[in-house]
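User: These chains co-purify. Model them together.
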Amino acid sequence: MNYGETSSGPFIRRFSSQAGFLLLLFLVAALPLAHPGPNVVRLVFITLVWIAASVGWNILGGFAGQVSFGFAVFFGVGAYATAISLNAGLGRASSLLLAACVAAAASVLISLPTFRLRGPYFAIATIGVSEATRVVMTNLQFTGGASGYRITEHGAFNQLLHYYVALAVAAIAVAVSILVRRSKLGLALIAIREDEDAASDLGVNPFRSKLLAHAIAAALTGAAGGVYTGYAAFIYPQGVFGFDISVAILLMPIIGGVGTLLGPVIGALVYGFVHEELMASFPQFHLLLYGALLILIILFEPGGVMGMFDKAVRFVRARSSGGSHP
Amino acid sequence: MSAADVANLFVSALLLAGVYAAMSVGMTIIYGVMKIVNLAHAGFLMLGAYFVFELYTRFSIDPLLGVLLGFPVFFLIGMGIHWLMIRRIPRSDQPTLASLLLLFGLWLVLQNLGYLIWGSSDRAILTPRTLSTFQFGPIVVPAVRLVVFGVAVASLAALEFVLRRTWFGRAVRALMQNSDAGRLAGVNVERTARVAFGVGIAFAGTAGGLLAMLYPFTPDFGGSFLLRAFVIIVLGGLESFAGVAIGAVILALVETFSILAIPAGYQPAIAFSLLVLALVVLPEGIAGLWNRRQRWT
Amino acid sequence: MAPILKLDRLTKNFAGLTALKDVSFQVEERGIFGLIGPNGAGKTTLLSIIAGSLQPTSGTITFQGRNITGMRSFQAVRAGVARTHQVPKPFGSLSVLENVEIALRFGRSVRSAAHTHDAKQILDRVGIARLYLQRAASLSVGDLKRLELARVLAARPSLLLCDEVCSGLTEEETASILALLCDIRRAGTSILYVEHNLRAIMSVCDHIIVMNYGQKLAEGLPQAMQNDPSVIEAYIGKTASI
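Assistant: Joint model of the three components:
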């Protein structure tokens, strides 16, 4: 798999990453001023939620290489935690914080047995966890079971409020991702991804590092679930714990470039916009197309969009420096 | 709960174990030879089910015959998929992220093709066999379960024969031990891999057909069986065929007897709970042994 | 000199195969001890067990008076034992500098803010400082071996376990690596060195341990081991058939 260049790589790339984020942040924040209409705002809102979840997943799946196929469990746990606490009278920010904490706690519980497995076996175990949770929630009468759970609304629906909350959470997610990548933990995670045993042989405690990464990733995804819940005001197990949610969260960083900083964001943008179009025109096709897309990406460009970008940059640089490359 | 009831449940579990073993052995072959975890296995279970279903409903072909016909059909499909996709991804001695995602993508494609073609309503295969039973003293056995078990065991026996007596079997065993040594000893790795993949898919297809004779199905029925196959393989040892049999028996017993204790709605979570229990209670068990030896690329 | 490492009846079974059987010996402090034996003798397995990458079936490992049997490798590193790998295992996506930084920040090093500087110094010592920004995956075999050594040095072990650091290198490269090992010993680190290149081992080691079929065959001074009939037989096989 192509995980992109090192952080001590070309300055131009790091600069363009950060400039890119700030530009994006500014554009998204300013969007409502152009009065684009509630549908566009909703579309961007959903994309922001996906960005938060996808960036979160990438911390565990991209940096550390532990590919989870069951991140819906954190999205769902965050969703229900937020819903319950909002109904209990907790403020919006506190509910989201609680959602993140509950999701992180859940991740610790899940890490204990599943990190004994590696690679595909870990992946399959995570599917099991997520599905088992969905089944339990579908049967749990306390939270409404399969019929779902409703948030009692106080006051009118303020779309812009949710929009900016989503923007804040997505921005926090990206910031956390950058901080982790540049930190000692980030270095450890990449070492673990490349060769877990060699990392251990140099003093890295793999379980502890993976546990931390998992918790951070879960917290961000849980917050994303909470943000979604605040907007939707009604959630049900299949909608927030569904396997298709896990697939989406996993697909986005891969489309954009797994393991990179910008990749999950690009992937979320692509997915967010394409998904809405697909759901409108071809509701039956979307998972089929994602499966085909995944196959094509793996066979032809495992580095995703960022991989293609890197290739293009290297091509341009090689040509402009007269063809020779160090 | 009388002794006869317990005996019946026990027999029922054993019969189920046979099918479960046939269902899991396909994944074991592919993993053993190519170190690839075939996530698309679920998709082929599903296709196997619908294959037998279509043959039965359209051409009135007996499901058993359909299952047998399925073997060569899925074998060819498996070899085709290997040629088309699998051989293009980098090979390794350990499972790779690329193979994982590729096969997952294939699973998505297969499952959703299934929805497109057959829709999401339950289908079932009902033959006169479905309702008749055999009686052995206090034990009552539905005919279909006995027959399905018979076919499953026969296919496993055939596999065992192939592994011991043919060039393919020898090559497979060599590659499962050590792929470099196998290559040096003259084993044609790519050809063996293609045939092994074909065999693995063939078993998935036929097992799907057998399962379809026992349960109603929709395009996503492969998923829960995939999880079960995984549990079986982890319980019994990743690369051992005997282990598959052991794991299948354990899972079948737990599932069958758990009906007594747990409400039906929670049933799907059984396989998963068993897996977690095995991982927590047997940390140095089979999964732990694998954990130490293997690496994730 | 007190022994820094003491192995007592180390045994390792792998599902029916006995890789190591009752291996016992000591490594003196500030010594360079060589471990030789034909392929399959169990040398790498032994190193892996001492380093904590594998767990023994039975037996004990005592390091600086502490029982470190059962420690995982990252714990062993914290205690002061670190190893190189026979086949280099670089972190391919990361730069050479970052590879060393990991060992610096997670190993036993003194907490310092000057990671980059310290890492460059270590790379310089090993001779690959000019490659510090290159992606590790793009290095040649010889440079990868040096990177292995650089990484393990960055973890600042008291006992260094070297696994064939010279195999595949030219005469010149071998000589410089051996000189480096002597430097390391002079600076206070003890070394247990597994090597196939017999000339290299004999020239640099104080003491040789010979293994075959998972057991310790003999040990003693290099000269003595070179002439020991059982050692010669282990390498060449029984001479009766000639």
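Chain A has one domain: 11-320.
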